[in-house]
Amino acid sequence: MGVRLEGIFPAALLPLLLTMILFLGPLMQLSMDCPCDLTDGLKVVLAPRSWARCLTDMRWLRNQVIAPLTEELVFRACMLPMLAPCTGLGPAVFTCPLFFGVAHFHHIIEQLRFRQSSVGSIFLSAAFQFSYTAVFGAYTAFLFIRTGHLIGPVLCHSFCNYMGFPAVCAALEHPQRRPLLAGYALGVGLFLLLLQPLTDPKLYGTAGEGLAGVPEISGIFVGD
Question: Structure pTM?
Answer without folding.
Answer: 0.79
